[in-house]
Amino acid sequence: MGRKRRRIEEGKTYEICFRAKSTLPLVAYGVIELIIQHSVARAQRDEKLYLCHDIWNGSHSHLFVRTKKGDQCVKFYMEVKKKITDCLKALLGLDELSIWEERPMVALVGDLEKAIERVVYLYANPAQDHLVERIEDFPGLSSFREFQEVLEEGSLEATTRQTVPRLRLSNFVRVKSRTLTPEQDLELVNGLWEENEERQELVRYPNMWMKAYGVSDEAEIVEVNREVMRRLREREAEMAEARQAEKRKVMGSKKLRQQAILKKHKPKKKERNIFYLGSCNKLRVEFLEGYERFCERCRECYEKWLKGDFTVEWPTGAFRPSLPPVECCT
């Protein structure tokens, strides 16, 4: 059975999630955090999209973005994945490394209610996975601190900027062990800052996702952010009560900082490939019906391309497939 077609529309809010196949590449070391920051900042050097919220949790990442161009969104997450892989190869002294599942989740978030729910889910992820009690305790990389910085700013254009080094693969020192002591981790981080003099900015737009839902009023922007925080605290409290009832403890920040890089890990089995997230069933049905029409139109366009008709207009958000050679060479 063939894959479902990608459709990434301009100016919409999407949740992107890419997962490792069988390891933990995004463990909570300072050097891993620096690698991720470099990879995202470098992929964003030409501002491919608006990065709003993100968290990097052991085996997977969640990114909340607002698109500019669909093809640029794809280029963004492909480049981030590749740069993280290349840096880990250099750090671990590997010639080959295959980390990621082949196809990430790229899901349109259809309405404001679902968008709020997904941002809450993103920051509640460590508590839901029983890693730490609250997002503030999570030692891995997340944009929660940046979110707090603009929590009361009623502007869609509110930004946070972080200066990070541009890492050169030749400047990595190969680690002797995949489990690092705090001293070894700090030495690696300081060394990369010293050996890589070129700087770049990691820019986030924590409020820009709201524009896709017509939110622009200053008071409404602040209210939405407050609602995210209220639901986040509520969700974390629910998880704490559930653990107490089960007499279960969180893993804790200390243990999270002691996990081996690329530690073996079996991810939860995915039931299906999600490409739409919405709170209204009517809108979901309308989206799926429109998506089927989109796929049918793409098939028609491709068939005309194969017959040599290049004047056909592809539907908005479509990725045009490559054509076979005009003639065979012997």
Structure report:
The protein is an alpha+beta fold and 330 residues long. Helix content is 40%, strand content 14%. The protein is built from 8 helices and 9 strands. It has helices spanning 30-43, 70-92, 112-128, 144-149, 182-195, 218-246, 253-256, 281-306, and strands spanning 13-19, 23-24, 49-57, 60-67, 105-109, 160-165, 199-204, 263-264, 276-277. Strands 3-4-1-5-9 form a 5-stranded mixed sheet, sandwiched between helices. It has a two-stranded antiparallel sheet with strand order 2-8. Strands 6-7 form a two-stranded antiparallel sheet. α3 runs parallel beside α6. The longest helix has 29 residues, at 218-246. It is globular.
From the structure above, extract its key features.
330 residues, alpha+beta, 5-stranded mixed beta sheet, two-stranded antiparallel ribbon, 9 strands
- For the secondary structure, the number of strands is 9
Instruction: Output mean pLDDT.
Output: 91
Spatial extent as radius of gyration: 21 Å
SSE class:
alpha+beta
| Individual helix count | 8
> The biggest beta sheet, please?
5 strands, mixed
Helix share of residues? 40-55%
- In the sheet with the most strands, the strands line up as 3-4-1-5-9
**Proportion in β-strands:** 5-15%
Shape: globular
Question: Would you identify the regions where 5 or more consecutive residues have pLDDT less than 50?
Answer: none
SSE sequence, one letter per element: EEHEEHEHHEHEHHEEH
The first-to-last residue Cα distance is 32 Å
